[in-house]
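Work package 3, deliverable 3.1, input record:
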Amino acid sequence: MNKPPIDVDATVARITFKLAAYDVTQSEKTAYPNEAKGALWSTVPAPDWVSGFYPGALWYAYEFAQRRGWPDQDQWRQRADAWTVGITEEQFTTTNHDLGFMIMDSFGHAFRLTGEARYKSVVLQAAQSLGKRFIPQVGMIRSWGDIDDAKNYIVIIDNMMNLELLIWASENGGPADLKKIALDHADRSIVEFFRADDSTCHVLDLDPATGLVKRKYTHQGLNDESCWSRGQTWAIYGYAYLYEATGTDRYLQQSLKAAEYYLARLPTDHVPPSDFNSGLTALEFKDSSAAALASCAFFRLSRLCQAPADKTRFWDAAVQTLASLVNAPYFSKDSGFASALRYQARNYHPDATHRLTNTGLIFGDYYLLEALLAYDSATKA
Ligand code: GLY
């Protein structure tokens, strides 16, 4: 398998330097990094959907320091713990579907890496809270809106990333029906989100009484018929995870179909535009966070696919993407830019006043670290 030069140790050190630099500015550990246009992060409080990514990145830093036997590993663990506990109250929230992001990336990693029971109980409670956003007549988890809104029932493709919380809980002492909720959601998502060409739409607006789809539209893409690239990568990643968790072939097939659509449209630097249909190829319209997610998913597909040709193809796609992200122009080495990854996009919108591209975002940095750890595991094995 090809091994382009990715200096994992040096790259992780540069990312973790930025993570530590933010931590020392915060005595309270309650303002979570969100977005960076320059040297400073804008921040959000714990109830925001991105709150788990910073503690999650700190847990990856701890995992990497442990792997290498670095002397600062306890310091990383303390940092990660301090930012994780700030999210504790979110375990009871039933107002959104983002608990998977918030809790698995913080408390989920905390329990995986330490085995401490105090982290596990939060994950189990959070899964029960998320389960309350599912109603059987729809067969999907409600992403946005009040839990008892009788008029609107909004589900977004991003929700594929929140299913791990339910499945993990059901297999680690939580109620078994949480897994059924996750799989019902995944199965209906195959039917509703995917188009004939295997691209995904972003948002479903359903009738909560009948479960019927009223409308399909976009919130962060170019238009209702276009393919928002991060939405596509949420799908590739989500179904690859589900295949690993369940062994069910249709989830692998769905991930592969979504991946084929994505790979067929990638530019030569392996970083997609924020929307595949925008026709805008300039750096300022790219989304390197989608590329980081894709790299993580392709490492997983390379591991899970049986056919040697598929293994190699996804390995190459994962590594080429990662190699692009850890170099100029995407990787930011300097302290004048808070985020590690440049050219991330919150959303693409035809009206520039509603568009947010060409920025740093904490979740892209988180998935970049995840991809680096996956590459490291595979090459050190
Ligand atoms: N889940 C929100 C986003 O991908 O921007």
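The first strand starts at residue 32 and ends at 36.
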